[in-house]
Amino acid sequence: MTKKKRRLRLCAAALLLAALAVIYALVLRADFNGQDTSEEEEELTVLAVEREDIRSAQIESSAGTLAFSYDGETWSSADNPDFPLDQDAVSALFNRLNPLNAVRDLGEMGEEDLEAYGLEAPAVTISLTLEDGEELSVYLGNEASDGNLYFMTSENSHVYTGDSYLATAFECELSDFEAEEEEAEETEEESESESEAEAEEPEESAAAEETGADEGE
Fold first, then answer.
1. Using an 8 Å Cβ cutoff, are 59 and 173 in contact?
2. Quick one: 160 exposed, middle or buried, by C-beta within 10 A (0-12, 13-18, 19+)?
3. Which of 48, 151, 198, 213 is 20 to 30 A from 113 via CA?
4. Taking the model in full, what pTM does it have?
5. pLDDT over 90 (residue 160)
6. Are 169 and 117 spatial neighbours (Cβ–Cβ below 8 Å)?
């Protein structure tokens, strides 16, 4: 074998080893990054809103505008206070914001970037007013290529991807929360009982005052 051929084979072997080393390094890096991403997905909490802290909520979507009031215990429709609401269903809806998790944080975006994510004119806007007067908003945009949903909040200018079911859940109408007849009757009875109890309190106080006056005489 000539020296030239031997040199060529050594060069080819060296190149092959170098290529294998690069591939091995890339595989290790991919596995490492994949593990980190998985951990970040579990820990990436964007927003946490305690339902008990909400005092009013408004949802704007293709289904229209829906507004709720909340006193810490009972939900009511801001536009139709007598509408029989399924309390558990409304609570479950807003529990989705405690916490609001993201799969990925795409970083800060300028207003000129939002159109690409469907966030220049969001498909759904959720506006909350909390007990301390703080106001928060969540904006839902287009579906991402991985099947998740682009969204952002009023807390910062970051765009995130998250569970696409958020859009399904918040594109709702008042009729979606109508209580069944039995539940509506129970709610009405509770309201009547509270009203009766409030009416009895002044009568008891008046009776007590009269008894005290008689004893004084």
1. no
2. buried
3. 48
4. 0.66
5. yes
6. no
